[in-house]
Predict the 3D structure of the following.
Amino acid sequence: MTRAGLTAALSVGLLAVSFGCKPLPQVADGETEAARPTEDFDYAAYIEAVYNKHDPEAIDRFFSPSVKVHSVAPDAEGGEGTAYLKDLAKNLITAFPDVKLSVDEVIRDKDRLAARVTLEGTHQGAFAGIKPTGKRVKAANFAVYRLANGKIAEVWSLTDVAALTRQLTQK
């Protein structure tokens, strides 16, 4: 930070203390919002490669080898590692061979990324204990990711399995 920048930051800090306010975080010279860690992560490329192109092996490009997955659906235990995520992707693609995920919204903040995704596909393989029905389904997924070193290191994800199940079991 330049001397003038340091003086300005100290002045803002002193004014804030004088009036009982907390100063806003300062951006160092040369840094911009685009320099934040999540800005370099291409979430849409992850969705496209793994799910829309049906390539679970692409998970290695986007996730840390020791990724921790805290949840994937209500009442489902999480897991750890890219092998766990590859198995989940393979199971989804087997159950819904034409699966397509659409990225509806992505929000980024420091090392966190939150996403809202819509899943669509035709049920042609066993899913959640339900035999293939041939029905088209559509469901929402919400996830929060923690990134480290340019890859996803931690996941909290919930898919609306109740909506999927309801669509698959309705007459």
Remarks:
- Confidence is low (pLDDT under 50) at residues 1-36.
- Residues 3-18 form the longest helix (16 residues).
